[in-house]
């Protein structure tokens, strides 16, 4: 079940962050990848700041923050 919820949260986080940063999503697979990597980055960021995200909503918020950060950094690198 953990993998299932991870994919669902990753897809939602990728879709939300895609809409926030670019105005559109990245497709189903792209949203899942962006959301999963964003969840990893968000987890690292939250731990560095001494914060904790609990439950599905906390995981979604953490993943969205990480995915937005990921999209921002990739956008800055691509513009060079």
From TrEMBL:
PANTHER family: UPF0410 PROTEIN YMGE (PTHR33884:SF3). It comes from Zobellella aerophila. Belongs to the UPF0410 family. InterPro entries: Transgly_assoc. It is found in: Cell membrane. Coiled coil: none annotated. It is a multi-pass membrane protein. It holds the Pfam family Transgly_assoc. Keywords: Cell membrane, Membrane, Transmembrane, Transmembrane helix. The chain crosses the membrane at residues 26-46, 52-74. This is GlsB/YeaQ/YmgE family stress response membrane protein. It comes from the Bacteria.
